[in-house]
Write a structure and sequence with these properties.
Elements (H helix, E strand, L loop, with lengths): L12 H18 L2 E9 L2 E12 L2 E8 L6 E5 L2 E6 L23 H7 E5 L4 E3 L2 E10 L6 E7 L5 E7 L5 E12 L15 E5 L5 E3 L3 E3 L7 E2 L4 E4 L3 E7 L4 E8 L4 E8 L2 E10 L2 E9 L3 H9 L1 E3 L4
Length: 308
């Protein structure tokens, strides 16, 4: 059951904000809904259709890209099926991802280290629904700001903006149409006739000891995993989070040292450098929805755990 808080009796914006964010995360999994949302990153924009329900105790979700080749992802609990127009798309098409799921691992304690919460008492209309805005205002310049418009009845996320350090919107997800409690059945989560389907089998990642540390991290950021994941048999992956924003770190052996380079795509920053650390030369890559200064400073503060 999703708990809705009466804002007029709120003890503080921080405490009520955390409750409403927790409700928001629950709503993704427990509510029945059908809608269309638009995601925009810079000049790029695409729309998607989403269906979600809990049927006979199992969670069903369908996500369809409406602007491209209408690739669909169907999820039934932990089983995932990708649906393509035909087999020729299977190895070349970009995967379809649900932006709502990025908030499933919210950590309230870490959030309070990096953000101040601000609740608006004035309701706004998003996709025909009343919503209240919850702002997460960064306490420093090492993370972006966030604005969430939460449904006034059930705290479902109707709109999310990521703001740069100037307060400009650099990433937006917004529902244009949403219906709660639609009459969905299992037949709504079956691949369409004439399409090619492929089950995605999630391979349990190989883990290895984390041999690395950071001499500096922004307040609130901490490792999500105790160990590191092994990719391609040689690349180690670390994951850090401040409770809402994740930063992925990739460590790979290389032969030559290269200078720092950076690329920005909407709210995502990718930084890379190759450095000599002890007896090895390592290519370090950081990917995260954080400002460039954060990525650069983290790359330069990356050290082996055995370093003094």
């Amino acid at each position: 059951m999703v708990l809705v808080v009466n804002l007029s009796y709120a003890a503080s914006d921080n405490s009520v904000g955390l409750i409403r964010l927790s409700n928001m995360v629950q709503s993704f999994s427990v509510l029945s809904y059908q809608g269309i949302f638009v995601r925009s990153q810079g000049v790029e924009m695409n729309s998607m259709k989403i269906l979600h329900d809990v049927i006979d105790g199992s969670e069903y979700e369908s996500l369809v890209d409406l602007d491209g080749d209408k690739i669909e992802v169907i999820r039934i609990d932990d089983s995932v099926i990708c649906v393509y127009p035909d087999i020729s798309f299977a190895n070349t098409a970009e995967p379809v991802t649900a932006p709502l799921r990025q908030f499933k691992e919210l950590n309230g304690e870490r959030l309070l280290e990096g953000y101040t919460f601000e609740l608006s008492e004035k309701a706004e209309v998003i996709a025909g629904r009343n919503a209240h805005k919850l702002s997460l205002i960064p306490k420093d310049s090492y993370r972006f700001g966030h604005e969430f418009w939460l449904d006034s009845e059930n705290d479902f996320l109707l709109k999310h903006d990521t703001l740069n350090l100037k307060g400009e919107v650099i990433d937006r997800v917004q529902f244009t149409d949403i219906t709660f409690a639609p009459k969905l059945t299992k037949a709504d989560f079956v691949p369409r006739l004439g399409t090619y389907s492929r089950h995605i089998v999630e391979v349990k990642p190989e883990m290895t000891d984390n041999k690395w540390r950071f001499d500096w991290l922004p307040d609130g950021f901490a490792p999500v995993w105790r160990d590191a994941r092994v990719l391609n048999g040689k690349t180690a992956m670390l994951l850090l989070s401040d409770g809402i924003t994740s930063i992925s770190v990739f460590v790979e052996p290389t032969q030559v040292e290269t200078d720092y380079s950076v690329m920005e795509m909407g709210s995502t920053t990718v930084g890379e450098v190759s450095r000599a650390l002890q007896t090895d030369i390592l290519r370090l890559t950081i990917v995260g929805e954080v400002p460039e200064d954060t990525v650069e400073k983290m790359l330069m503060s990356f050290l082996p755990r055995t370093a003094s």
